[in-house]
Design a protein that fits this description.
Layout lengths: L8 E3 L24 E4 L7 E8 L8 E10 L4 E2 L3 H4 L1 E2 L21 E10 L9 H8 L3 E11 L2
Antiparallel strand pairs: 1-2, 2-5, 3-4, 3-7, 4-6, 7-8
Length: 152
């Protein structure tokens, strides 16, 4: 299946015009997931998946802050209540669901990629980010992201 890269859109009113995420989204503050708006879900989408990943983390594979599965194809908003509405998966804090930014102090700005994937089949269980990418790459119809920046 050819990857479509034109329809799916992801945006967030919680990411400022300068790209910054507010302190309330940080792990050591209120730890509130930002609201994401999803539109243009392509035809044939069975389910959406969400992964928030920080490639700037000083770890070999970056740091995963949120995995979320079981998102119906007609969903247009994800946010603070999403862990209760859908199926939260593991993050690299060793927990399930949203875990906000917590970069090392003085490490500079980190980029938080909120990826939304339109899939042609449902995700079984709650895979890690890497398991999802390995097992469902062939099911991705389209993907897009919005990026937030945070530093301490």
């Amino acid at each position: 299946m050819a990857l479509n890269i034109k329809d799916l859109k992801v945006s967030s009113s919680d990411i400022g015009t300068d790209g910054r995420l507010g302190d309330r989204h940080a792990k050591d503050r209120d730890n509130v997931a930002p609201t994401l708006t999803v539109s243009g879900t392509p035809q044939g989408t069975v389910e959406l998946a969400l992964i928030c990943h920080d490639p700037d983390a000083p770890m070999p594979r970056g740091f995963t802050h949120w995995t979320l599965y079981g998102i119906s194809a007609d969903t247009t908003e994800l946010g603070p209540d999403s862990d209760g509405r859908f199926r939260p998966g593991p993050n690299d804090f060793g927990a399930q669901g949203y875990g906000g930014p917590r970069p090392p102090a003085g490490h500079g700005p980190h980029h938080y990629y909120f990826w939304v994937y339109a899939l042609d089949r449902s995700v079984d269980g709650t895979p890690t980010r890497q398991e999802f990418l390995d097992q469902y790459a062939d099911a991705i119809i389209e993907q897009n992201r919005v990026v937030g920046i945070y530093e301490r």
